[in-house]
Amino acid sequence: MANEIKIHKTVLKKDEFDKVVDSNFSTFVDPEVEVNNDTVDEFFRLYSKLYYEIPIEGETKSHTYLLKESSKLVDLKRPYRCTTVTRWDNRT
Fold this sequence. Notes:
Low-confidence stretches: none
Mean pLDDT: 82
Structural class: mainly alpha
Order of helices and strands: HHH
Largest sheet: none
Number of helices: 3
Shape: rod-shaped
Distance between the termini: 81 Å
């Protein structure tokens, strides 16, 4: 009752192998093209959207930081410091 399995082996010479087998690298799916959305318009769209979520003060990621960085390009006559914040949208 033993099943007989036949194995067939084909041996190719190097030059025959190169003709038969494609050894170049390829992928199963095409790579996705990365879209660069980093534009000035996109920055200001996000800034308007996140305006009230950005902390007022902080070394980075704050309105103070943005003001400090912008002051490197624009000559500010006096330092701007926010002492009172009024939330016009009534958020807490």
